[in-house]
Amino acid sequence: MKQKTVAVVGAAETTEMGKIPNTSQLMLHADAALNAMKDAGLTAKDIDGVATAGDSPVEIAHYLGITPTWVDGTSVGGCSFMLHVRHAAAAINEGLCNTVLITHAESGRSRVGARRFSRDPASQSGQFEVPFGITNPPTMFTIPALRYMKQYGVTEGDVAHVAVVQREWASKNPRASFRDLITVDDVLNSKMIAWPFRLLMCCLVTDGGGALILTSAERAKDFPQKPVYILGTGESCETPMISQMEDFTTSKAFRVSGKKAFDEAGIRHSDVDHLMIYDAFAHLPIYGLEDLGFCERGEGAAFIREGNTRPGGKLPLNTNGGGLSYMHSGMYGMYALQESVRQMRGIAPAQVPGAKISIAHGVGGMFAASGTIVFSNEPL
Amino acid sequence: MAEYNRPLPSPTPETRHFWEGCREGELRLQRCTSCTESYFPPRPFCPACGSREVEIYKASGKATLYSYIINHRPRPDFGDQPHSIAVVELAEGPRMMTNVVDCPQTPDALTLDMPLEVTFEKANDEISLPKFRPAKG
Question: Closest approach of chain A CAs to the CA of B116, in angstroms?
Fold first, then answer.
C-alpha cells in the first residue's frame, strides 16, 4: 500500500479492563467503540466501514447504528485486527469507504455473552490434534518451544526472563493487571502448566476490548488527536494445526508478514523506536525478534536477557506489560495496536521519549496467522 | 472402556482410509506419484505439487520425537497424572501429533529425537488412535 495515506484518528480501550462481570461481550465492543468515537470527535453516523473478529461485524454495526459501505469479518485469531488495519487502509485508498471502525472485545474471564470455542471432530484439528489432549492455547501454543530451546541451547530461565522484563514495563502502567516486579526464580517456581511452561510464562485471561478509527491522511489533520500514520503493513498465514508448522523454531507467517511490512514502509531495523510483539506466551517475543529480523536466529533470548528490550534498553518491547502482565482477553492484537498508537501520540504510561516509528506485530491462532503494522507519527 | 470418554475424530471421505488403517493396525500415509512427496494429514491431492495422482501406502511406523509438552492442567479424561502431548517426525518425513506412551511422562524419559514406534490404542470398534512408544531395539 501507499505510505502515510491513511492514519489512525481514534483509539481507545474499554473504560474498564480486567474483571468486568457486569458487562456482556457485545457491550464491551460498544464501550470501546464509543470511547474511540469520542476520542476522534465522531458519532456512529460518521462511520462507513466496520471490521471485527470473533463476533460478526454485522452485529457490531447494527448494535452501534452504523450503515457501512465496507465490512470486514476477517477472523484469523488475535492478529485479526492488524489484518483489519491493513484491509481498511487499502479500502480507504480505493475509495470503498472513508472512516473505518475496528473493534475487539472479549469477555475472556467472566464469559458474559461470550462464544464457546469448539472444534468439530470432523475438522482437520478435530481429527488429528484434539484426540491427543490439546485443550486450549496453553497445550497448543507451547508445543514448538522445546524444539527451539534444544536447537539453540535456550534454557527455561531464559524464557522466564521474558516475563521478568515485561513485568518491569507493567510496573510503570497503572492499567496493568499485574504490576509487582518478579524474578526469574518467581517465574520458575510458579505453578506448572505444560512443561516447560509455568504460570508466569502464560498470558492473563481478562475481560476488555479496544477500538480504532482510521481515515485518509488528508482528512486526519482535521481531527482532535495527533494523527498516527500507517507506514507499512503485512499479513500471512501458515497452518490451522500447530503440529503442521513447517519448522518449530521459526514462524513462516511471522517472516512473510514482517518482511512485507518492512518493505512497504521502506525502513531499516535501526529506524524502529518501539516494538510490540504479541506475547500470549513467553517464547513469542523471542520468535518475533528473530522472525522480524531484529536478531539472528537463536539470539532472541540473549537479546532480551541482556536488557535490550527493558526500560532504558535500545529496543523497548511490549511497553504496556504485554499479554503476560497488562491484559489478555483472548485476541490480544488490539491491545498491541493501542499501545503503538499511544506511543506514537506520546501519551503512553511508559512513554519512549521521542519515538517516531512503532511496529505492532501480531500472531493469530497458534502460529496460524500473522499481521504486522508499522506506524509513524511524522507526516510525509 | 471408561478411559475413552475423550474427544474422538469423525472421519471424512478424504480421511477414512487413514482411520480404517489405524483400526487395522496400519499407519497409512499418502504419496504423490508425480513428485513422490509423502504427506499428512490425508487429502486426495498432493499439497506440494497439486497433482491428484496420489497413492496410499503403509508407513514404517518409525518416528523420532520432534517436540512436546507435559500437560499439567486438569484433563480427567486423560487420568489424574501429567501426560505428554507430542509431535513426532515420521521416518517418511511428515509430522503428526500424538501422545508418547509406555514410558514415564517426565522430561528425563522424553528426550527430543529419541526413536519411537507406532502403537494403536483402540477407542471403540471404529476408531483406534495412533500413539508412539520408545522403539524396541
Answer: 16
Q: How many domains does the structure of chain A reveal?
A: 1
CB contacts under 8 A, B 79-98 vs A, are 82-83, 85-87, 95-98
Residue A330 counted as domain residue: yes
pLDDT at A179 over 60: yes
- Could A146 and B95 be called an inter-chain contact, meaning their C-beta atoms sit closer than 8 Å? no
Is A223 a member of any domain? yes
* Helix spans in B63-134 (H): none
Cα–Cα dist B124/A267, whole Å: 58
Which residues form the domain of B42?
10-134
pLDDT value at position B1?
A: 46
| Domain membership flag for residue A39 | yes
Over its length of 137 residues, how does chain B's per-residue pLDDT go in tens digits?
455 789 999 999 999 999 999 999 999 999 999 998 899 999 999 999 999 999 999 999 999 999 999 999 999 999 999 999 999 999 999 999 999 999 999 999 999 999 999 999 999 999 999 999 999 86
A120 lies in a domain? Answer: no
Please check whether residue B4 lies inside any domain of the structure. Answer: no
Distance from CA of A185 to the nearest CA of B (A): 19
Considering Cα of A288, then A294, then A295, then A301, what sign does the dihedral take? negative
Number of compact structural domains in chain B: 1
Residue numbers in A near B99 (CB within 8 A): 132-133
Residue B5, in any domain of the structure: no
Q: Which residues pair with A13 in a beta bridge?
A: A210
**Contact across the interface for B71 and A194, Cβ inside 8 Å:** yes
Full residue range of the structural domain in which residue A362 is found: 6-113+204-376
Chain A CB within 8 Å of residue B33 CB: no
pLDDT value, residue A146: 98
In a domain, B99, yes or no: yes
Task: Go through A49-81 and write b for each residue having 16 or more CB atoms within 10 A of its CB, e for each that does not.
Answer: bbbbbbbebeebbebbebebebbbbbbbbbbbb
Distance CA(A235)–CA(A369), nearest Å, equals 8
**Interchain CB contact of A132 with B (< 8 Å):** yes
The domain spanning residue A367 has which CATH number? 3.40.47.10
